[in-house]
Amino acid sequence: MTETSVEPASSYTVTVTGYGSGGDGVGRLDDGRVVFIRNAARGDVLDVRLTKEQPRSARAEIVGILKPSPFRIEPDCPVFPQCGGCDFRHITYEEELETKLRRLNDAIARIGGVSARASEILRTNQTNGYRNKAVFHSDGHSVGYYRANSHDIVPVDFCPLLKDDLNEALRNIKPGGDITLRSGRNGLSQPLEEELDGLVFRISGFFQVNTGAALLLYQKAREYANMSKREALADIYCGVGSLTIFVGRDAGHALGIENYPAAVEAARENALLNDLPHVEFLCADAADWAPVIKTPYCIIVDPPRKGLSPGAVRKMLESSPARIVYISCDPATLARDLRKLSGYSVKDICAVDMFPGTANVECCCLLVKE
Known about the structure:
Elements: E1 4-5, E2 12-15, E3 18-19, E4 25-28, E5 34-37, E6 45-53, E7 57-67, H1 93-110, E8 121-122, E9 133-138, E10 143-146, E11 153-155, H2 164-171, E12 179-182, E13 192-196, E14 199-203, H3 211-225, E15 232-236, H4 242-248, E16 253-258, H5 261-273, E17 279-283, E18 298-301, H6 310-319, E19 323-328, H7 331-340, E20 344-352, E21 362-369
Parallel strand pairs: 5-7, 8-20, 15-16, 15-18, 16-17, 18-19
Antiparallel strand pairs: 1-6, 2-6, 3-4, 4-5, 6-7, 9-10, 9-12, 10-11, 13-14, 19-21, 20-21
């Protein structure tokens, strides 16, 4: 549906009743249309001006706060909300956690048609200084992040989300092209190393940007998988193999499946590094992989944001594991895929606050064969 910009016009009074999936405050106009408002907080009464309109919805900017929400706080970052990196630096952390848990449970119920609910959101309570990776942009004159909903540069010389060594590096970056920095247990270096629960991983591809929260997520996946040395594990979309290794150390045999050759090579090196010869990796598509030694007791999936491919769903159902552990960075995608996994029911689900300060939420779901 076409979205049209509107010229500055008379303002509207809106009460914010919740949040959209991207973190914008949500309310209703007098004509019944839903309106999305950046930097709004649940409970705010706002004077707003419409910036874009559709027949059933609109976007607006805050002109004034008539009555502040009890959850509203003063942002602790001078470039918020101009910078597009954070969504929730203007509300309490308790409110942020509540809205993430509500978002997950709403999606599971409304889209997935599932009665199970996540009762907890795992977190480290380290809301700043947690990011081990940052991507900076430059226009040739300044270095920073993209402005919200644009490619304009917001100059920054300090980001509260970043680890100390990344902020130190940021202060020394010269304007030029884009630059990606990572920090691990061995500092800013190549190859980068990270440690989780006594396991060491050399990172050459995707790895969670919040190491502490990643440990909580992996521990929950290990609990859900409930492996023993009598059983086999398959991990689809395994990347550099960190989750395969973390959970697969409990299994008799573990197989990670990934279609990116460089990631598979890194995964094999990680298995050798941790002396786990029973953990193997196969370069193959999620829909086309050879079975493990025996029918897998558990299949773990951590697909991209778009979710499981039809072929992956078919292969999982053909493999008929007793358990499926589904890790997702998008509750709506998870909910849609749950409907496709016929013959399985949701046994448990939890959220993980992998990205404090943002609207993103990670989730981990256990399905068992009916």
